[in-house]
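Researcher: Can you fold this with nicotinamide-adenine-dinucleotide in place?
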Amino acid sequence: MQTQVRLFERIENEGYEQVVFCHDRKVGLKAIVSIHDSTLGPGTGGCRLYPYTDETAAVEDVLRLSKGMTYKAAISGLKLGGAKAVIIADPKTQKTPELLHRFGEFVESLGGRYITAKDVGITGADLMQVRERTRHILGIEGLPGSSGDPSPLTAWGVYNGMKAAARHVWGDASLKGKRIAVQGLGYVSYSLVKYLVEEGAQVVGADVDAAARSQREFGIEIVKPEEILAQACDILSPNALGSIINATTIPAIKAKIVAGAANNQLATDADGFELMRRGIVYAPDYAINAGGLINIYHEREGYDAARAYDHVAGIYRTIEEVLARADKENMPPHRIADRIAEERGCRSATTSC
Ligand code: NAD
């Protein structure tokens, strides 16, 4: 009872519109859909399937992620709201067609207020199952008119945002000769490293288990995962985990710029202030990593890859605007990004996301 009261307080304070608990004992579905804000358009965001051991953690995740989607859509100028879904399940043992169908039925029952897509734990094939029960779905790879794998577009956006940050710091957008430390060498980094190497950057990377491909294909230097954040470098690009910019890691960072695709890079609001105090320029995560969302947005108007790439390249201007205003208003970029998103019409929340 006490938890429920706090949950309503939280939802009210941070402006969530609707949080739906979807349950079906027969198929073992436990899902939560959070629609944070649909002022600018239907709440859109992927579905994450994860074996949360703690239900509170699942609620926390869906609330935080859906709010992030509101700000990501708004700062990118998209007519979309922010939403997200989580399914509490073990992907190895509990992900059945019946469970995915039932989830699709719940999405359909929301009448288009929530549009689902892929996230951690959900494959393209899973999304096809969900699609058998709902029309409110985007980003299915392999279907005619689909936008396909978002990772290359996310990387394209990060690359462009990184160039804007470089211009802000060094007066030149070129990354040639810059030493760039890349944490995580998964899907996004694969395309990102390609762009960076092509431009003549000196890339050093680390991954807990997938370093070999980038090393083999691009010949980049590889260091141990625990050494990447403290690399002597110009730019640090976090592309693995959230909360990696924190009170413990910040003192070790030698880069002048932090620009990467990982969501929720700052562990706390204070960490954004600390980066600013140290003269490290932070390209806000949800602004620089919006390429995937911009990409699926184009499915709504008839997908055209060239148009999507052009649109994503506009992340350069977004980061340029954020950093210029951050300097002018003497505020950290993550706060300025929130402000710009709110000025573009998403309802402001009382706390920063
Ligand atoms: P991914 O899972 O393919 O890659 C992440 C990589 O990080 C993996 O290879 C993993 O082994 C590695 N990793 C995990 N812990 C690590 C550690 N401690 N040190 C070094 N490496 C570590 O994911 P992705 O699709 O490339 O996405 C990368 C990040 O960008 C994620 O945080 C994701 O949430 C975010 N993101 C991705 C997209 C997209 O379009 N894929 C869009 C927006 C945001």
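Model: Folded with nicotinamide-adenine-dinucleotide in place. The chain has a mean pLDDT of 94.
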